[in-house]
Amino acid sequence: MSLVWIVLRHLADIEEMARTVGESKKMISSVEWEKKLNDVKIQKEDMNRLVMNFFVTEGYVEAAEKFQRESGTETGIDLGTIIDRMAVKKAVQCGNVEDAIVKVNDLNPEILDTNPQLFFHLQQQRLIELIRNGKTEEALEFAQEELAPRGEEDQGFLEELERTVSLLAFEDVANCPVGELLDISQRLKTASEVNAAILTSQSHEKEPKIPTLLKMLIWAQRELDQKAIYPRINDLSTATLEESAV
């Protein structure tokens, strides 16, 4: 978090310097860079809230409970709702879409009532699961009765429906042009969409803040690369500062 702030601040400083110095890059030594990092004071409470935000958003209930006890950081949400949300997410990831829809409606019927795109994608996933299990006739009937009417109302839905139904035209669906629909990544994509919708309905961020900060760091370093030579993080998993090549 402090590194993101330093990079952004330095970027502004160097842009001002570049206007007077010209195109040459500023050299920033490891000693100078680390001193600037150490000068930034981040409140422990803010860091704790970032960690708790990650646990809650990603659904790590036990970790959130333990972290709450140890740090005194409030979750800001009923942990019971996290368990229910994760049950929905797991159902989609396992291909039990009907069960997931029931669970979502038990949580809050308005989630699907007010989000036609989410409901369509859940029904689309249900169609994919029928095709995956070789239930061709049932899949065609389901597509015609449940999804086709929605496709008539929305061109985007119609295109997605046609793409999904085209799976039935191939004997080797795993290697067909739209075979990725049967990949586990499609289930995960739908599950993430449902998870985000539930979080939004609970007035909670739909994505954890930490990945967003890392994206900001990557962007800021790329911007700063154009104007300075400085110790940068090349491996986010270790966050080790490495000297840049001159």
From TrEMBL:
InterPro entries xref list: CRA_dom (IPR013144), CTLH/CRA (IPR024964), CTLH_C (IPR006595), LisH (IPR006594), Ubq-SigPath_Reg (IPR050618)
Membrane-spanning intervals of the chain: none
Limits of the CTLH domain: 81-138
Name used for this protein in its record: CTLH domain-containing protein
Organism: Linum trigynum
